Every structure is written in C-alpha cells, then in structure tokens.
Amino acid sequence: MPETKEEIIAPRKKFVLKKRENIKTDYKVNYEAELNSAQLEAVTTQNGPILVIAGAGSGKTKTLTYRCARLIEDGIAPENILLLTFTKKASKEMLNRASLVLDGRCDKVAGGTFHSFANMILRKYANLLGLKNNFTIMDTSDSEDVMAHITNVLYPKKEKRFPKKSTLLEIYSKSVNKETPVKDIVEQEYYNFLDVEDKIIEIHKGYVKYKRENSILDYDDLLLYLKFLLQDHENIKHKLSNTYKYIMVDEYQDTNTLQADIIKLLANTHNNVMAVGDDAQSIYSFRGANYHNILDFPNIFPNTKIIKLEQNYRSSQNILNLTNAIIQKAQTGYKKELFSEIINPKKPAIVRAVNSSDEAQFVCQKVLELLDEDIPLSDICVLIRNARMSYQLEIELAKYNIPYQKFGGPKFLDAAHIKDLIAHLRIILNPDDTISLNRILLLLKGIGTKALETIIPYMQQKNYNQKLLPSKYSTSLAPLYQLLIKNDENNFSLTQLVDEIIKYYKPILKDKYEDWQVREKDLEHFSYLSSQYKSLDNFLSDLALEPPEATVEGMYKRNIKDDCLTISTIHSAKGLEWESVFIIGAVDGRFPSAYSFNSTNEMEEELRLMYVATTRAKSDLFISYPVDMYDYSSQMILSKPSRFLDNIDENLLENWDIESE
Q: Rounded to an integer, what distance in angstroms lies between the CA atom of residue 610 and that of residue 592?
C-alpha cells in the first residue's frame, strides 16, 4: 500500500479535457450525392478565403448555389451572406436555384451586381459623401453627352485631332477603374492625343464638377463612392463587414482594381471571401477588367485555399483535348486539365477554305447536314472575332434560306424615343438633372438652346408658373407644365405616371419620327416594364444598371424566329453553349488580331479568347480560315491559320480542305 505522496501520484494517468464539437448530420440536402469531390470541398469549406478556379462547363453556378444552401444549413443567417455577380440575371438564377434546394430559405440572401449593391448602399449613406440620396444614374450614352457638353464649353474650337466624346469617357473610366491618373492612361494607351493631354485632364475635372453640381452619377462613380465610403468611415466599414460575414464573388477574373479593393474592404473583419472564376476566361480588359486580380488573390488574402473544378459537364473529351492543348500555350495562369465523361467519336475539325465565300458556303452546307442529324438550328452557333467578319456568311445564309439571329444591334434603351421617356422620369425624381431637362425641353417647338438658360432654373425649383417666363414660350411649355403639376397633385403610382407621360409624349413622337407607328410599340413595352416596379427610384436604377437585354429589332423578331441559327461575337457568347459551334475567320492577323502582335498581354488575352470560343461547343467544333483574306491595315494577304492552332497534336483534330467545284 503506497504511503508517500509520490507513490500515490505516480501511477495516475493525465487527462486533457476537450470541448466536444457538435457535428451536424441532419442536412436536408445530400451534398455528397449531388456534387463531385472538388465541388463538395468548395461547398463545405466555411471560413477563410477560398479561390475556386472553375474551368469552363465545370458546374460553377451549381457550386455557388449549393454553398449558399450549405451555409444556411450550417446556421448562417441568409442576410449575412452576400453574393456579387456581373449580371442581375446570374444573381437571380443562383438565388432562385438555392431557394429551390432549401424550400425558400435563401430568399433573404443579399445578391446582385457590384453596381446594384453599390447603389443600394450609397442611397443609405449618401449624405456622408456629400451626395443627395435622390441622385440619378447616367448610362453610357448620357455620360458621353455630358462629356461632349463640357468639351464644348471649355474648348469650343478644338484641334483637328481631338478625342471623340466616347474616347474621352473611355479614358476617364479606365482612370477610375484602374486607379491610375488620367495623365498615365493617355501616355500608355492614347499617346496619339499627347498633344492635347492637358485639355483632356481639364475636361475630366469639369466632368466631375458637373456631376456633383447636378446630383448625377455614372457607372464608375457608384464603385468609386462606395470605396470612398468604406475607406473614410470606419464605423460603416465595420458595420457592413459584420453584416455580410460571408461574401461570394462570381466571375472574379472579370473584376477591375476598384472592385477588388471593395471586396477587401468589405471583408476586413473576417476575410470569409469565396472568389469563383477562371483566369483562362479573362477576356474583358477593354472594359477595365484586371487579369491579375485572380492571380494575386492568394497574396491579397493570405492562407487562401485554392480549389480547382476540372470536371467538365458540357463538352466531349475530344473537344476538351483540343481546348486543353490551346490553353497550355498561356504563359501565366493556374494550370488545370479539363476532363469529361462525355464520349463522342467526333473530333474538332480545322477547315481550310480558298476564300471567305467558300468558307461561308461550307458553313451553310454543314448546317443543313446537322439539321439532317436532328440538331435544331437553335443549338448551332457561328462565333466571330468581331461583328464585321460575318457579312459574307449573312449573304450566304439568305441564299440558303437559313434563318439566323445576330447578337448585337441597337439596344432597347438606346433608342431615342425610349431615352426621351426616361428623361421625363428622371427630372421628376431629380429636378437637378440638367441633361434630362435639356433633352425634354429641346423636344418642344419654339424651345432652343438659348431658351434653356431662362427656363431650366425655374424647373429645377419646380416652379411651373408660366407667367414668370416670356410669353413666346407659353404655348410650347403648357402641356409639359400641366403634366408635371398633375403628377405633383395626384401622387400617381409608377405605372400611372408612365402612362401619363406616354399620353403626353405621343404627339411629340408622331411629329418627330416618320416611323412613329413602329416606335409606338416600344412605348407599350416600356409601360409593361414599369408595371414590374412600385418605386420610380428602383425602376430608373435598374434601367441604368441592368437594362433589358433585347435589341430594338429583336423585340419584334424573337417570336417569329425562335428556331434560328445564332451568330455571335465571342465576347457576347461567354457563358453560353451550343451543340455545334463554328469559329470562322481564324486566320493569323485577324485571330489573333495583328494589333496584338507586339504586346504580350494582348496576345495572351487573344489566346484566352480562342479558349473561350472552343469551350462553347458540346459535340461539334469546326474552326475555319480562308487563305486569301486581305488586311487593309497591313496591305497584306492573310493566309495562315491562327497561331493558336500551331503545334497541336495531329491526333487531336481533323484537317479538311474546302475547294470550289
């Protein structure tokens, strides 16, 4: 029997108490059955920064959808989750799918585009930035008009070589989104305007001042002011960060420098950011997208977990063999190898044609063969590097009576008569909006630019007493004043207001446009769009930030040609897929463009553009090139296939020659 203290203690074991973790097992969704191993890892990793490199067709949307559901099943409140996308349609689709998975429990997840999110936050905290919360948002054409106005005021007599209003706006936008001084943007990208650099800078200063004075913002301002808010107001930054404890960003490769900064600021208290994207599909540098954002994500967010989604659910393995070989030529990026369980004996074909006419005839004949194989026209697409490259094909399609729809054309909201309606709504929301006041007043007979200086100050004060103005304006202004007074007195609903404006505007429409009967249909559609909203503020914001996708022409042709071939630029086709895809004009000097030959960054983006094009195809892929294409800039005949097809294993594709009979 032990007698000493040491003898009593010696035989005893030491125990460490550990808190038992509650492991949840009663999930409503069987995630293991629904997801592959890489998707499951992305969905079930809850905390910390995560970078998901999602290859083309690898189930990116499904991964984001199920992660939303998983976070909520793990006890995260839906309102603490923020999903940022690049289109309202993408956000709505993901949240709807997540709600279906969890029976509506994802309805309160905060989702939308960067710009719509910024708009929502700025409306709440506008006063902290010296803004009015009834600010209106200009679209691109409005911004260009303001730029032109400032230019004419400051420099009525310009040099012969002076940037157009669209170029001035491009320079300003790149300066904001790249967070680079205007001076540097001009010197790096617009050096042909170096001799007027000082004037460009002054115009941009005037542009900024004009927007502040008139309480209007452009697209870039939304992001810029949101960053200012987060940087300059610690309490707001922490409040928003603690509200949005889990942030997911779709298409991260398309973010610009400003957007990446906003994400970092929003995540400052937790770093719970999941960025999903594919560096190999970064093709929007002309919009200010910064390819390095996705490459630098692990440096910006230390201890990032990188997950690669490489199983493709869209294309056959034969097509993926070619796409993998193409993207392996990239000098930078995350290495991945797409694979598929879809087996199809067809290999991609490289098609050599004598000229563009023969190339177009080949496409038409092959389309007819695909129809015989029961592939519908709606599942066939012709991809082009730029819109001009389809002219010969369009002629041949007409000869063969093959209906087609081309992505492009004037957008619904760009039509002059629709912009007129919007201008009326804008001045009701924001009387300081001088650009909109100019537009609606110049529609009236007897009102010229000189009259605006007299009339506008009264209208901005909502003083509609015609007796204060020269009598020569009374007849012209009377109907407009009656409309505005009627709105103030009746407290119209949005739909009623729109219908009243349309009633007022129809005589103007008939007087101004010879084709007013056709345009009148657009007014009906505009009224329908307004009926989906209760708030004028929300309606105008959505029109500016998420305009209807349809073109004016497409509004009437869509129902007539539901089953038609698609012709699309590659940029417009990103995110879409077809059973059979033709890539035409793949001749070196056009694809890649000769303009990219002296720039490594531009050549890399051209390569990624080819990768995006080839990954749109499910079963059939035809890449064609004519050998007599004349390039006017170099005055040379282009005859070689795209360099992106050089040194591809001959077993991965078939080579065809098309010759005229």
A: 8
Nearest to 544 by CA among 659, 645, 423: 423
Q: Which residue has the tokens 């005589």?
A: 507
**Would you name the residues annotated as active-site residues?**
60-61, 250-251, 281, 616
Strand residues in 162-265 grouped as ranges (E): 216-217, 246-249
> 36: exposed, middle or buried (C-beta count within 10 Å: 0-12, 13-18, 19+)?
middle
- Run of H or E including 631: strand 629-631
Percent of the residues in the chain that have a pLDDT greater than 90, as a whole number: 41
385 with 570: CB under 8 angstroms?
A: yes
- Count CB atoms within 10 A of the CB of residue 475: 12
- Alpha carbon distance 384, 358 (integer Å): 16
pLDDT of residue 375: 94
Instruction: Please report, as a single letter, which amino acid is at residue 69.
Output: A
Beta bridge partners of 234: none
Q: How would residue 552 be classed by pLDDT, with cut points 50, 70 and 90?
A: very low
Give yes or no for a contact between 279 and 294, defined as CB atoms under 8 angstroms apart. Answer: yes
If one counts every other C-beta atom within 10 angstroms of the C-beta of residue 9, the result is 9
CA–CA separation, 464 and 455 (whole Å): 10
> Quick one: tokens of 407?
């992505």
Instruction: List CB contacts of 594: < 8 A, sequence separation 6 or more.
Output: 631, 633, 634
| DSSP for 254-275, written as a single string | G--HHHHHHHHHHTTTT--EEE
Q: Is the pLDDT of residue 554 over 50?
A: no
Instruction: Cite the beta strand spans of 504-616 per DSSP E.
Output: 565-569, 578-583
- Cα 333 to chain centroid, rounded: 22
Please tell me which residue, 12 or 215, carries the higher pLDDT value: 215
**pLDDT tens for residues 254-279?**
998 899 999 999 999 999 999 999 99
Q: Which residue has the higher pLDDT, 90 or 526?
A: 526
- CB crowding 604-626: b at 16 or more within 10 Å, else e: bbbbbbbbbbbbbbbbbbbbbbb
**DSSP-assigned beta bridge partners for residue 351:** 624, 656
Across-strand partners of 590?
593
Instruction: Region of 300 please: left (phi>0), alpha (psi -120 to 50) or beta.
Output: alpha
- Percentage of the chain beyond pLDDT 70 is 90
Helix and strand counts by DSSP (H, E) for the chain: 27, 17
Which pLDDT tens digit goes with each residue over 38-78? 999 999 999 999 999 999 999 998 999 899 989 999 999 98
Distance CA 82, CA 246 (A): 6
